[in-house]
Amino acid sequence: MAMARAFRLRNSLSSSPLLHDTAIKSLLLNVGCSSWLYCQLSSPISFHSSAKFDLTDLTQPHLWYPNARKKKRNVFLHMGPTNSGKTYHALKRLEASSSGLYCGPLRLLAWEVARRLNNAKVPCNLITGQERDEIDGAKHTSLTVEMADVSGEYQCAVIDEIQMLGCKTRGYAFTRALLGICSDELHVCGDPASVPLIQRILEVTDDVVQVRYYERLSPLVPLNVPLESFANVKKGDCIVTFSRQDIYKLKKKIEAGGKHLCSVVYGSLPPETRTKQATLFNDERSEMDVLVASDAIGMGLNLNISRIIFSTMKKFDGESTRNLTVPEIKQIAGRAGRYGSKFPVGEVTCLKGSDLPLLHSSLNAASPVLERAGLFPTFDLLSLYSRMHSTKDFHPVLEKFLAKAKLSSDYFISDCEEMLKIAVVVDELPLALYDKYLFCLSPVDMNDDISAQGLIQFAESFSRKGLVRLQEIFTPGTLQVPKTQNQLKELESIHKVLDLYVWLSFRMEESFPDREVAASQKSMCSLLIEEFLERSGGYRPFRKGQPTSQWLQKKYQKREMQKYFPEINVESD
């Protein structure tokens, strides 16, 4: 059956003047033909059939990864709640392996695993969309899941937070890693709610699947009494809310009481700043003994939290304001009482008594079983589809392809609303389809005016000259410490634009040559944001009377030096 289907593919594609042998071969490899069948189909044999290959048939995505299908993988599912040691056991296997990958959902997690392995004398590279840190002799790599290598072979691989394969925007990257990584051992960590779906998906791969369940290592106690007043906040508390504006309102209220200073963590803060804020909160010597945060604390940061306090049980998800889901509540609440920290017992409550029933029922409930995993077509499929329809406009190609896509019941097409927004912009420019595809994949928030304008200017400059110099839209040395919330938000957006430039520079290196300048200005943005946060809380590192600009420059220089000389203390003068 597969042979006949592939022969019909070659015949129907060959009859189109738009398709060349290289395109046929590319597609054959991506739909998962074996090497032998690929060679047969590459031979000059003519077959006559009126049937046409359906490029929109995505019902067998496991065949997109022939390298992984050559191997009978041993897949270990490490399943349990937050703070259960599941990832720890998977990482121990990775550390003991001769070669391996770690795939995490966040840069912060990739950083942490790379640091851990290198400290354990296991040389480990770091690869994210915006970073490449290659270590001499390294056979291990820690990366964000979108960067997962499906072409190489490894003894061991770890995929963290696998329940995110159900994420409507990023689920496809976890599905790709699960199906595509070629390793003798594949260790998958996450919520037990993902087990039945993973087992169904891997039924057709001939992998051997074992499930290991874990229990939480330290107690988590849901309190029956709400906080009611911010006067009741104590050291080690984390107050959770879901908008940037509310985070700063709560920080101001708590600090107005005169007993505490607050660190803050939320998604639009640069990752480096989030890490610094977490470090200040964790440090016994710091005055920042309370944390105000969004659900960004749910993964990626090690935090010494005594008590989680939900200021609200509702969040705006981009479309509507809704109650938090059971998995969201469990993920956030589970951050209290980290095993081995100074708070061995975690507590969780709400600001208002009316929210306690939802908190308690959610913590006692099982997470809903995941039904489907995210999927997204490869560029090769979209490219061939565009040739068959004689267009280089990416928006109509993507829209039509997804409208006709055929899926099995275990998959859904990942939400590509952001990609379609970008496609409308880049289709106005004289760009090749692949370049349009890259811009559409880039990490840009089109709802952020400054970020969107940055992408548009980068794309326009690239289409005109094939070269994008950073100084065309940004003048280094002009950044300042923000004085207002609006200026802070603007600086966060500038950081996103610089981050976008670095991301593009790794994919179009000759066209985006100012990576080092962009990276250094990103670091300066982070320091300026940190300075704003320190000033707003009344917290000051000792500076020996230096003006702020001199102090920041010296601090930045030390941070750069610390990359190469870890013994340097960034905070000391």
Describe what this molecule looks like in 3D.
The protein has 20 helices and 18 strands. It is α/β, with parallel strands linked by helices. The strands form four sheets. The protein has an eight-stranded mixed sheet, with helices on both faces.
Note poorly predicted spans: 1-51, 540-553, 560-573
Helix content: 40-55%
**Mean pLDDT over all positions:** 86
User: Which secondary-structure class do the elements indicate?
Assistant: alpha/beta
Tell me the number of helical segments per DSSP (H or I, 4 or more residues long).
20
Describe the largest sheet: 8 strands, mixed
| Strands in their spatial order, largest beta sheet | 4-3-5-2-6-7-1-8
Portion in strands:
5-15%
- Rg over CA atoms, rounded to whole Å, is 25 Å
Gap between N and C termini: 72 Å
Number of strands: 18
Shape: globular
SSE blueprint and pairings:
Elements: H1 2-14, H2 21-30, H3 35-42, H4 66-69, E1 74-79, H5 86-96, E2 100-104, H6 107-119, E3 124-128, E4 131-133, E5 140-144, E6 154-159, H7 171-180, E7 183-190, H8 195-201, E8 208-213, E9 220-222, E10 237-240, H9 244-256, E11 261-265, H10 271-282, E12 288-293, E13 307-310, E14 314-316, E15 321-323, H11 326-333, E16 346-350, H12 356-364, E17 373-375, H13 379-388, H14 394-404, E18 411-413, H15 417-426, H16 433-441, H17 449-465, H18 485-507, H19 515-536, H20 548-562
Parallel strand pairs: 1-7, 1-8, 2-5, 2-6, 3-5, 6-7, 9-16, 10-12, 10-13, 11-12, 13-16, 17-18
Antiparallel strand pairs: 3-4, 14-15
Helix pairs in contact: 10-19, 14-15, 15-16, 17-18, 18-19, 19-20
Key traits:
single chain; 573 residues; alpha/beta; 8-stranded mixed sheet; 6-stranded parallel sheet; 20 helices; globular; disordered N terminus; disordered C terminus; nucleotide-binding
